[in-house]
Write a structure and sequence with these properties.
By secondary structure, this protein is of the alpha+beta class. The chain has 16 helices and twelve strands. The chain folds into three domains: 93 residues; 75 residues; 105 residues, Arc Repressor Mutant, subunit A, CATH 1.10.10. It starts with a helix and ends in a 9-residue tail after the last helix.
């Protein structure tokens, strides 16, 4: 993994958790710092405790949340934990009851009742997230005991990393009124140079998203990538194993086998296999003329049309799935695959209809022709 791949794919590199990686990246980051600053517009933090690149997307998308969280309260607890740690010194210890008391007294929107299992379970999930990313250490005890009994205690230690978790804002965010203000505020301090802003948006989109699509809002950005495709492609290929592919209404950074730039598709799981099969069915319907591709190449299907394609995939190929997916009801199967397709930006859900992105045509798969003859799944299948 190259230095650029490492810093872009990780939230941060903590010296306390991986000293060898910390020093390796610290020794080599000078060679890519100019690219990160100028082409992506990302600040680079290097100190005696950690290395971090402040990564911000060109545009926030629904799949960019913390995948470990699935409830708003978990985000609230995370923010309250970060606030709690602001008053703690590095290596200072605290017990769980200190934290729970702080959350109860600080959150004014509603009363937090720790006798309720759901509240304890949400907090345990957030604490585990903080431990995983090195924000706190567990010195004694187990937070799972708190999930079972709200009187249980755990001893933690503050690592000092919490102060670098949130992005540093150059302006007072209390003046912001909606999410778009955060996106616009990102570019205010770039000397109002539209060329610099456009370049950074394009590079961020290519490196941080599965694909870039031409819309009325980003025509200037897409014109930039078409005009400078060779320069951009050559520059990125020198940094890691990749190929820039630009089409009439879309652009993709296709990663090679040696590239380790964050999360990639397909992953080695059944969900990725199913998405590839669904994409093949969609392509087949397009070839047959059952689905029309409009001039802007943004295919729009009703929820019923899209659901029928997912159901067709399950009906046709379920014998090749692991037991978990074979045993799902039609509704459960559809919900799971729809969510995963949104996560990888294959589709956009606009409520009344589903929009199919053109990346669908680049990632499709099929079982071997003798699939039916060779399929012999048993109840002991593992996911």
């Amino acid at each position: 993994m190259t230095t650029l791949e490492t810093v872009l794919s990780k939230r941060w590199i903590l010296k306390s958790k991986d000293k060898e990686l910390y020093y390796r990246v610290k020794d080599n980051i000078g060679g890519i710092k100019k690219f990160i600053n100028e082409k992506l517009g990302y600040p680079v933090i290097v100190n005696q405790y950690m290395i971090k690149v402040e990564k911000t997307p060109a545009e926030a998308e629904s799949w960019m949340g913390i995948l470990d969280f699935n409830d708003k309260m978990e985000y609230i607890f995370l923010c309250l934990i970060l606030m709690f740690l602001e008053d703690k010194e590095t290596e200072e210890q605290f017990v769980l009851s200190e934290l729970t008391d702080y959350i109860q007294s600080s959150y004014k929107e509603e009363e937090i009742d720790w006798t309720l299992y759901n509240n304890r379970r949400h907090l345990v999930k957030v604490i585990k997230y903080c431990v995983t990313y090195g924000i706190i250490f567990v010195n004694d005890g187990d937070e799972e005991s708190f999930a079972k009994d709200d009187t249980s205690e755990v001893l933690y230690e503050n690592t000092g990393a919490s102060r670098y978790f949130m992005k540093n804002f150059s302006r007072n965010i209390m003046d912001y009124n909606n999410p778009k203000d955060f996106a616009q505020g990102e570019w205010i301090d770039v000397n109002e140079d539209r060329g610099v802003v456009r370049r950074q948006r394009v590079y961020r989109r290519l490196l941080m998203c599965p694909g870039m699509y031409k819309t009325e809002e980003n025509e200037e950005d897409f014109a930039y990538i078409r005009n400078y495709r060779n320069m951009i492609g050559e520059e990125l290929a020198e940094l890691f194993d990749c190929e820039l592919q630009v089409y009439r209404t879309s652009a993709f950074l296709v990663l090679g086998e040696e590239c380790r730039l964050g999360k990639c598709f397909p992953e080695e799981n059944t969900s990725s296999d199913i998405i590839l099969l669904c994409n093949s069915i969609l392509n087949s319907e397009i070839e047959k003329g059952n689905i029309e591709v409009p001039p802007d190449e943004h295919i729009r299907l009703t929820k019923q049309q899209f659901q029928s394609i997912i159901e067709k995939c399950k009906l046709k190929y379920s014998k090749g799935f692991v037991k978990k997916y074979r045993d799902m009801s039609t509704g459960e199967f559809y919900k799971k695959i729809e969510e995963d397709m949104k996560k990888y930006s294959f589709i956009n859900d606009y409520g009344d209809y589903i929009e199919i992105n053109t990346i669908m045509g680049k990632a499709a798969g099929a079982y071997p022709k003798d699939f039916d003859d060779n399929t012999d799944k048993t109840e002991e299948d593992n996911e």
